[in-house]
Amino acid sequence: MIRTLATGLALAALLGGAAFAETFEVKMLNKGEDGERMVFEPSFIQAAPGDTIKFLATDKGHNAESNDGMIPEGAEGFSGKINEEYEVTLDVEGVYGVICKPHYAMGMVMTIAVGDVEAPDTFLEGRVPRKASERFETQLDNL
Ligand SMILES: [Cu+2]
């Protein structure tokens, strides 16, 4: 009992602040629970700075990458490979638009909010396929 407690304390001290960072898992799917084709599930995540998003290659043929013009100022873009699990830690506050490159036109997109933020007016200003734009708009309603 005492030993367990000591081990727990040592572990907590070792991990420090990182112990409070969360990891969110996102499935990349051909078909979502609601029957929608080509989706990230969940398609919206509210995260905090330092949290990690893990994209799971649940179905084949998908990837996850930040969309040009849809990441906060000062943040670095990211890009996972098709068919591979991919993890990214987001330190910069803001709204991130994520797409699956092969299925962008089919609306395979998701939104990640890091911190207590609002979407910038420019978020959907670029050239965004209609289906993707519709889904982004629905996701942004969560903010
Ligand atoms: Cu895809």
Task: Give a written overview of the molecule.
With 143 residues, the chain is of the alpha/beta class. The protein has one domain: Immunoglobulin-like (Sandwich), CATH 2.60.40.420. Helices cover 17% and strands 30% of the residues. Strand 1 (23-31) and strand 2 (37-41) form a beta hairpin. It has helices at residues 2-15, 130-140; strands spanning 23-31, 37-41, 44-47, 51-56, 65-66, 86-90, 94-99, 109-114. The termini are far apart. The longest helix is centred in the N-terminal third of the chain and has 14 residues, at 2-15. It binds copper (II) ion (CU). Copper (II) ion (CU) binds at residues 38, 61-62, 100, 102-103, 108.
Feature tags:
alpha/beta, Immunoglobulin-like, binds copper (II) ion
What topology does this entry show?
Layout: H1 2-15, E1 23-31, E2 37-41, E3 44-47, E4 51-56, E5 65-66, E6 86-90, E7 94-99, E8 109-114, H2 130-140
Parallel strand pairs: 1-4, 3-8
Antiparallel strand pairs: 1-2, 4-6, 5-7, 7-8
**Element pattern in H and E:** HEEEEEEEEH
What's the Cα radius of gyration?
17 Å
Tell me, rounded to a whole number, the average pLDDT. 91
- Indicate the low-confidence ranges by residue numbers: none
Write the CATH homologous superfamily.
Cupredoxins -  blue copper proteins
**What number of domains?**
1
Shape summary = globular
Strand order of the largest sheet: 2-1-4-6
Q: Ions, cofactors, ligands: which are bound?
A: copper (II) ion
Sheet with the most strands?
Answer: 4 strands, mixed
Provide a count of the helices.
2
The number of strands is: 8
Strand content: 25-35%
